[in-house]
Amino acid sequence: MFSLSELKQSLMSNVICSCLLGDNARVRLRLSQLLHSEMDSIYGVSPDEVADDICEVELQGCRREFFINNTGIPFSIGQQVIIESDGGYDFGVVYSTGQIARKKLRLKGLDKNGQEWTAVLRIADENDTQAIIELKKRQSEIRDICLNKIKKHELDLKLVDVELRMDQQKLSVYYTSSHRVDFRTLVRDLAGEFKARIQMVQITTREEARRANAFGPCGCLLCCSSWLQKIHANPFAEKSQFSETPGNESHAFNITGLCNRPKCCLGYSKQEKGCHQHASGQTTLPAVGSRISTPEGPAVVESIDAQKKLVWLRYLKSDQTRRLPAEKFNAMFVKK
Asked: I want to staple 19 with a disulfide (CB 3.0 to 4.6 A). Which of 35, 62, 282, 286 is the partner?
């Protein structure tokens, strides 16, 4: 049997992002299409937001950025396009357009006057599509070469992902490391191998999980790689419902994600109403092994479930067990 940490490490050990042209991308794009089809009924028609010049494009690594459409041709969701990228060009998939793209722009605080946007060059044609497919086929080969170079130079870092731009003039290497790494010799070696500009990008474990494009324990795609616009360093300001209380250690897997950090979805959780709580905002739970007197005779607290707020009692005389909600247990046995 594998422990939770070993399982997470195995899921994250070989991150090869399949965001574009993959099954997960098709699901996300289909949801975006459904949202656009219901746009008028959800938002209504707003004359000041009918412009279709701004679009949101999904790039490699589940990254989404905004571009301006100067082609004069309206884009459809899921359409492959060629975009400007740092003195060259790259490819992406149109994720949102028009009114929805502009609303996302405002939510991110990017709707500033005088903002200059990178442009979409053109819609991808058959030659571009074939070049994109060939580029994706090379990803695993490029990754293997980078891994061998890292081992050769004996660098203490973990390779997460590699991105070769469509024009093959820039290679981005994403890695994680607990300390500063001198990779100058590695960069020179990779530049000689690929004849391209090398960019080394150190990322966090949250970013690593997003690039994994995997499924969470809930059975859904990870929030960070599916719909969250921004990865939060600390998704919840207060940890009242997850404070350290007896029994919480056994439920640590319920609040940590693949990145071994608190799940992003916890930022949208609300404290249950109607629970009797003490000053710290947490329902009072007895210590395991505590002895209490009941009308049926003496009993001992056999176990507790801090997540579900349940208490199991075992009666010493009959050796029978009984389950009680923590709120009822407190009302019956805890002195006010």
From this structure: 62
CB 67 within 8 A of CB 83: yes
Element (H, E) at 106: helix 98-107
pLDDT at position 163: 92
Residue 156: inside a domain, yes or no? yes
Indicate if 191 and 262 belong to the same structural domain: yes
Token representation of residue 63: 């990254």
Mean pLDDT highest for which of 41-55, 102-116, 288-302? 288-302
Query: Is residue 221 exposed (0-12), middle (13-18) or buried (19+ Cβ within 10 Å)?
Result: middle
Q: Rounded distance, CA 150 to CA 155, Å? A: 6
HSE-CB at 131 with a 13 A cutoff on CA atoms is 17
Look-up of token digits 């390779």:
159
First to last CA, the chain: 45
d(CA 56, CA 108): 12
pTM recorded for the entire structure? 0.66
CA distances for 192 relative to 137, 170, 171, 186, 189, angstroms: 21, 12, 12, 10, 5
pLDDT tens, residue by residue, 103-162: 888 877 777 777 788 999 999 999 999 999 998 888 889 999 999 999 999 999 999 999
Q: Does one domain contain both 181 and 292?
A: no
Burial class (CB in 10 A: 0-12, 13-18, 19+), 10: exposed
d(CA 165, CA 274): 55
Are residues 243 and 151 part of one domain? yes
Cα–Cα nearest to 26, from 213, 286, 193, 180: 213
Question: Residues 256, 257, 260, 265: is their CA dihedral positive or negative?
Answer: negative
User: Within a domain: residue 117?
Assistant: yes
